[in-house]
Amino acid sequence: MKIGFQGVRGAFSDAAVRLYYESEEHRDELGDQGYETVGYSDFIKMLQDVNDGALDEAFFPVENTTTGIIARTYDYFQYYNVYAVGEVVEPIVQNLIVIPGTRPEEIRTVYSHPEALSQCSSFFRNNPDIRTVSYEDTALAVEYVKSCGDRSKAAIASALAAEINDMEILRPHVQNSDSNMTRFLVITNRPDYPDNADKVSVYFVTRRTPAALYKVLGIFASLEIDVLRLESRPIVTKRFEYCHYADFRGNLKDPVTEEAVRRLKEECMEVIVLGNYKSDPLAL
């Protein structure tokens, strides 16, 4: 299998791929065929390759426990023929990574992705003499520091990035929160959902009528379906109009779930089923 992820080897997306496919359940599914990974710098290119079948699956970050929905990725679902068939939650452990032998007092500059730097704001408040520099990717920041050979430079990234680049973790767990996690959806171009799927993701646009969203939520309430998440996003082609994303418990082969989707389509202007997959226990 050919699997896409955002970033380079050692990125948290790469770690999520390994976490998912090396679990006992999915290792058995792969059998002897194994998998090959391809890193992408562009989400759109990755989606296009899934859509066109150049990739069998790809890992798409959609939500973080500290920063919320990753809107730039979720919004792409509307425009491509892709479906979520799996879910994995990757614990985000940020580490201060240096050239082996570096002492703490030597560090003057730390490089990382802006989001990673913001997730470690407490560390930088406690070390005001250290300057932060934004970099396009956490794992690439480690590669850059290694290439410089300068002990005044460090990076913040995953333990995997340190291992791959033969770098040293000077200080582990420098993130603000130990509950920092990113949720990834495993996407493909086939709506071939696993039999044990228990979570449904949908996109919908309500009618412009009074209590439209209330009526939609009433569908789930009347069928006693647990809505796990609800997000509103602007429709970029329309002024001040909004679409909604929802996750709810269910399996599309179950009559109650089928009824919910049928009634949702009757009530809304537009409905897209984004996927039906086995939930990660950390996401419930």
**Shape summary:** globular
How far do the termini sit from each other?
Answer: 28 Å
CATH second-level architecture of the largest domain: 3-Layer(aba) Sandwich
Helix/strand structural class: alpha/beta
CATH fold naming of the largest domain = D-Maltodextrin-Binding Protein, domain 2
User: Would you identify the regions where 5 or more consecutive residues have pLDDT less than 50?
Assistant: none
Q: What is the rounded Rg?
A: 21 Å
The share of residues in extended strands comes to 25-35%
| Sheet having the most strands | 6 strands, mixed
CATH superfamily annotation of the largest domain? Periplasmic binding protein-like II
Strand and helix order = EHHEHEEHEEEHHEHEHEEEHEEHE
Mean pLDDT equals 94
Which percent range fits the helix content?
A: 25-40%
Q: Kindly provide the name of the CATH class of the largest domain.
A: Alpha Beta
Counting H and I runs of at least 4 residues, what is the number of helices?
Answer: 10
